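Posting for a labmate who doesn't have an account.
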Amino acid sequence: MLLGIDVGGTFTDAVVLNNKASGDVAQVLAQAKVPTTHEDVLQCLLAALDAVLIENVAAQLERVVISSTIVTNALTEHKLDPVFLAVITGPGMNIKGHVPVTPYYLSGYVDHRGKVTAQIDWTKHRDLLNKKGKGVCAVSGKFAVRDPRLEFQAEHELTKCGYKKVFLGSELSGELNFVRRTNSAYFAAQVYTLFQSFSQRITRALAERGIKAPVHILKADGGTLPLEVASEQPVEAVFTGPAASVLGIEALAAPLVNSISLDVGGTTTDIAFWEQGLPLMAKRGAVINGYPTAVRSFHMRSIGIGGDSRIHKLNDDSYQVGPEREGPAAAVGGSAATLSDALIVAGYVSFGDAARSTAAIAALGGEPMLEAKKIIASACNTIQATIKEMLTEWAKQPVYTVDDVIKGTEFVPAQLIGVGGGAPGLIKALGEVMHLPVDIPLGAMVANAVGAAVARPTLSAGLRADTTDNYYIIPESGRRERLPHRFNKAVAEELLTSWLREQTATWQLPDQETELISYEHFNTVHGYYDTGDIYSLRMQLKPGILHKVVGKEVDF
């Protein structure tokens, strides 16, 4: 059996799946939906857990996967103190303004070929070495993915200064983009203590309930990491909610045509694109607080419109919906009108006390049906504008393959797919505006928890090889070894796949397909002659879903 829990902005969902029922198709055994308590995320998570722990389930669980807003909220709401960031940029580079804090510049330099051309001169950094450090910090070198030795030196010295944990850019990503790698290391350091506390509390709480199954955290790209691994890479836990909805759709009803999916909760709507039955990945990393990172993620956007969104009447008698959450709809006891009330009045959904919804909309001024339609139109226009921005952004993405050049990157949607508690009404209205058919799969109310439960575990790693110096390195492991005879791309993939398999066995993960996610190859030149080749690639255990799921609807 598999357990998935998703902590959303308004509700926390949990499902237990029987993955032994019928081949590769899993069935929902239990599901629950409880209000999210932002003061203590663990509290609502455990409430949802307890609601689905039917008789003998705890002992039969094979895996627990958690999709939590704890990292996303902490970063986006600026609730965390800044942390120390040291960078090794080499000559002539200033990255101030491209990272969240003013960094400390260390001397030393690794060139583009991975050669240490200048060691760190620690006599220039007496101020740093004499300063008592505490907590967590980050270090990132410009070409450290090609030789991380200067990062290792800095880690050693900073640990001696008193820092209990030092995040290295080269260990979080094998990508060359220095700024994205640096931001990833910084944000990982910033959320480390918070995530450690959360991990420890969740581990204790599960043990108290007799759950011995391994615990995984959902990543932004739809894979999962063992809790212990995620604790060392906590920035990977950002944007897990949107990822969970994508996986839930893939499990419940993967689209057969180009589609736009919308996960409509009480607070936000998460938008994603689908092509040939699979979600599109962002061609660049996730953006956190306006800063680009190396965190892989789906091509998604989250906007502050949901069923519980506050309604603002403007001076021209038009409306703005969100981004603030008002609270529950007037139909179910709320004190003011929300988007859900407008949808009830307009006839798109039916729940609660319709008379209360009508009265709440009337209190805004004007005839209730007319005002409700104006409110819904405003919400749909905002969502549609965001979709257009995403389509434009996708079309402007750089092309990386010959196929991209020939076919282009234009995305033309043919349908809308809706999940989440607010989907039935809002998606229907949006479909009318965009003139697209709408599909709401069975199980849509808890699609995020379903997606978390069936997400494949994944690990990633990079490899860099230099045939001139006859060595290769896997930054995530610190492994630097001599090249085997007749080295080429195929051999590089074999070496990296072998290392990933070793990690798979170490963490007792299911054996699954690996995929190449980035690759570059260029010649090194001395004078007028080629002297060798440099290979740089990154692979991972392929994310996705373990099972299709037969969903069921229950009124919560």
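Reply:
Got it, the structure tokens are right above this. Residues 460-506+511-541 form one domain.
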